[in-house]
């Protein structure tokens, strides 16, 4: 209900602030990129989109404004391009990750609400979705398989310190 929407909006707004706080205390790389409160904007936006899709009235408004969404997506892609052209850590941590989240959210909305022929082919009919499923599966299991392989072959945790350990990691 409304409480969840309010919570998600607050989480979305606070994520860049959490990233900037970590940045100010010297945690410039991994913390702002990986910690959940710092990436809550992505999660909150995804949940809000899912809630919009499930609400017929809200989804009708999304469909009604699909042209505006496509125009917005064009500007967002340009903004991300400018951000990536001059990738400074401060820009990424302050607004960059949120900008990318909004861009992907807008792309997702366009693809599921009113894709044109090209977007429909790329995201629904091409090999890309199947490759994505495979890549996500590999991403989920690769650390466990890597640890298992190193444990079986070397009897210890994965550490690349020579050709043999590199070969096992690559396999």
Describe the secondary structure blueprint for this structure.
Blueprint: H1 2-24, H2 30-34, H3 40-54, H4 56-64, H5 66-85, H6 89-113, H7 117-125, H8 128-154, H9 163-170
Helix pairs in contact: 1-3, 1-6, 3-6, 5-6
Stretches where pLDDT is under 50 for at least 5 consecutive residues are none
How would you state the average pLDDT, rounded? 89
Tell me the Rg in angstroms.
Answer: 20 Å
Percentage of helical residues? over 70%
Give the N-terminus to C-terminus distance in angstroms. 48 Å
Largest β-sheet summary: none
Q: Helix-strand pattern, N to C?
A: HHHHHHHHH
Structural class: mainly alpha
Tell me the number of strands.
0
Counting DSSP H or I runs of 4 or more residues, the number of helices is 9
Query: Beta-strand percentage?
Result: under 5%
Shape: globular
Describe the structure.
The longest helix has 27 residues, at 128-154. With 171 residues, the chain is mostly helical. It has helices at 2-24, 30-34, 40-54, 56-64, 66-85, 89-113, 117-125, 128-154, 163-170. The chain is built from nine helices and no strands.
The gist of it:
With 171 residues, this protein is an all-alpha fold. It has nine helices and no strands.
Keyword list:
171 residues; globular
């Amino acid at each position: 209900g409304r409480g969840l929407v309010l919570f998600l909006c607050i989480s979305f707004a606070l994520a860049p602030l959490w990233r900037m706080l970590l940045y100010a205390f010297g945690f410039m790389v991994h913390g702002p990129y990986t910690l959940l409160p710092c990436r809550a904007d992505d999660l909150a936006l995804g949940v809000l989109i899912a809630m919009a899709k499930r609400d017929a009235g809200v989804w009708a408004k999304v469909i009604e404004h699909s042209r505006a969404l496509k125009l917005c997506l064009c500007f967002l892609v340009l903004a991300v391009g400018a951000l990536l052209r001059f990738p400074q850590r401060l820009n990424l941590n302050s607004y960059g990750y949120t900008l990318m989240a909004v861009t992907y959210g807008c792309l997702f909305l366009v693809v599921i609400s009113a894709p044109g022929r090209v977007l429909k082919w790329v995201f629904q009919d091409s090999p890309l979705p199947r490759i994505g499923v495979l890549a996500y599966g590999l991403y989920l299991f690769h650390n466990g398989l890597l640890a298992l392989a190193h444990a079986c072959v070397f009897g210890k945790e994965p550490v690349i310190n020579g050709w043999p350990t590199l070969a096992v990691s690559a396999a």
